[in-house]
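Run: sequence + nicotinamide-adenine-dinucleotide -> complex structure.
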Amino acid sequence: MKKLNVGMIGYGFMGRAHSNGYNRVNNFFDLEYRPVLKAVAARDQAKAQQFADKWGYESVETDWRKLIERKDIDAVDICTPNNLHKEIALACAAAGKMILCEKPLSMNGAEGEEMVKAVEKAGVPNTVWYNYRKVPAVTLAKKLIEEGRLGKIFHYRANFLQDWTINADLPQGGAALWRLDAAAAGSGVTGDLLAHCIDTAIWLNGNINTVNATTETFVKERKHQLTGKVEKVGIDDASIFFCRFGNGSLGLFESTRYARGHKALYTFEINGEKASIKWDLHDLHRLEYFDYKDEGKLRAWRSIHVTDNGGEHPYMDHYWVPGLQIGYEHSFVNHVADFLEALAKGKPCPPTFRDALETQYVCDAVLDSAKASGMTKQVKHT
Ligand SMILES: NC(=O)c1ccc[n+]([C@@H]2O[C@H](COP(=O)([O-])OP(=O)(O)OC[C@H]3O[C@@H](n4cnc5c(N)ncnc54)[C@H](O)[C@@H]3O)[C@@H](O)[C@H]2O)c1
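>> structure
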């Protein structure tokens, strides 16, 4: 079996999710490659060492540049806040390292373009962790659409709702709260949450051509955790947009961190001429399906428990017996498996940097439109 030496930068939420993916992947998938957890880079030596011991990394670096310079690292996994993605990715490409980068690809489209140029020039395998594509029920939705079961698509609707920033005393910036600081995050829910919805939407329903958006920052000032000063909040707390897809369908998207009672409610629904589908992250192993061609007296929404094997349901042959479901963490195991399989075949592993740039362009257009009081903005394409 070939080894793929992985170096991870950042060891927070995604550091754990990805490490679990690398550790589990060969238990469930028969692959040519085996990831080896060579090193983790983070600024705090003691904390990084604790993480390395827990997840099985062989060594620790306190400067991510050192990790990239190392000859024994084949692939670098970028798990840092968004403002570091570009700098790290450019350094990786220059060093000829493969890159697995967290989403959103970049702070904005211009940065994303530089990153795409760099990885394509260097010819290094790359992927962006839009992991919801790798949830079996979402992959099944893709399959049903490709089989033409929905017919012409009229509507695409998506929400990503949370409620964790309602407290006006919550500081912005620094550890755990960098998402509230525009300098680290680039934007608020648009780049953090809607980016997921947009990536899935483009994958399932094709390119988005125009958007009209509105955003709101409900809490205008927050104390900055690092400076201790009360500073203006630069992120969008809520973002709503409608759009037109290239296939003629209409889209409606909403994201907020102010929907009291919702923790991570990502849902989408697609309405076609012949059938509709809907999915809900809180019930991620189910795909709801309505088929108009069903016999009238039985016609109804059906809830597909996406756990069959024998090739019926994506990824599920690799797990348990039919009826037993998998969870959130397996979307990362599946993503690692896809990356390693693509590597063995010399093929790209979608979503690539270029695919993720398309999402970045939609985010840019959403923020531009919101700034221009909802004016229609054309989306740039890759
Ligand atoms: N795919 C998903 O569903 C998903 C979910 C959550 C986060 N993310 C993305 O993953 C990335 C990280 O988010 P997170 O939730 O893991 O954040 P986190 O705050 O939990 O972890 C960030 C890590 O980056 C480290 N870091 C910050 N600056 C650094 C530096 N200069 N050098 C080395 N390490 C540094 C921090 O120490 C921390 O370990 C973000 O881009 C985020 O958008 C994606």
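>> summary
Residues 2-131 form a domain with the Rossmann fold fold (CATH 3.40.50.720). The mean pLDDT is 98.
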